[in-house]
């Protein structure tokens, strides 16, 4: 895989691709180049069959403190429209490999939105989530009003979007935004361990399961159930469904082929 400037990629464990946002001096602010590199890295991991789960993280102080304000401070609406950064950014929604965000420190604005695009979030106790765009005269633009509302409900989302208040990892956990909170010293290991349990499952079930859960966000219950059922039936065509059920009956560990 190619070299990047604003991010770092590595293999965190067998089958686990890791991406680190790497602009520590700027609290990992998402410059246009960082966003481009993130999309490229996610797509490259997604195309690699040996990668069964992806972990995205920043550093101790920040997951990402939002879009890079210095690149937006002089921009006109027409400049923003011309940049068309969201067409590219939206490709993150199409990543089929599950993604775990490991969040320590600030996850603000576009950083919080990026964590919410991921499928699960493991938070360090120091994590702070927020949509502070209102404080700089704008509002969330990369899904904050939609994903946050679906995750934490209207009352808290409205407060966060309209006042810019940050919430702690504990509050985020109580509100349903994050999967688990753990001590700062182990948040990354914990995220990798969650990624490993996903990676140890049959790949086709993981892929179709992720697809079906995401479907719940943009469909009626009726069509969502139909979609789920079709994916369920489809898995009966897989070798892994035979293997899983046979292994259960033979009281042994299944050996997944991914077929
Ligand atoms: N953009 C650019 N630089 C930043 C950003 C940012 N978002 N956040 C921090 N930095 C820089 C600071 O300017 C500073 O740089 P320097 O040392 O050169 O002066 C360095 O990072 C360290 O920051 P601070 O000194 O401010 O650190 P503090 O610990 O004092 O404060 C805060 C930490 C509270 C997080 C503070 O930095 C802050 O408020 N940052 C801005 C947070 C924010 O408003 N984020 C929202 C940005 S708008 C947005 O995200 C819109 C999303 C649109 C979609 C994008 C698609 C992904």
Query: What sort of overall outline do the alpha carbons produce when their principal axes are compared?
Result: globular
Compute the gyration radius: what is it?
Answer: 19 Å
Mean pLDDT: 97
Strand segment tally: 10
Question: β content, as a range?
Answer: 15-25%
H/E element sequence = EEHEEHHEEHEEHHEHEHHHH
Distance between the termini: 26 Å
Helical content class: 40-55%
Major sheet: order of its strands? 1-2-3-5-7-10
What's the CATH C level of the largest domain? Alpha Beta
Kindly describe this structure.
The chain is α/β, with parallel strands linked by helices. It folds into two domains: 7-199, 2-enoyl-CoA Hydratase, Chain A, domain 1 (Alpha-Beta Complex); 203-250, Lyase 2-enoyl-coa Hydratase, Chain  A, domain 2. Helix content is 44%, strand content 16%. It has eleven helices and ten strands. The strands form two sheets. Strands 1-2-3-5-7-10 form a six-stranded mixed β-sheet, with helices on both faces. Strands 4-6-8-9 form a four-stranded mixed β-sheet. Helix 5 runs antiparallel to helix 6 (154-163) and helix 9 (203-215) packs antiparallel against helix 10. It is globular, with a radius of gyration of 19 Å. 39% of the residues are buried. Octanoyl-coenzyme A (CO8) binds at residues 26-27, 29-30, 35, 65-70, 89, 106, 108-110, 113-114, 132-133, 136, 141-142.
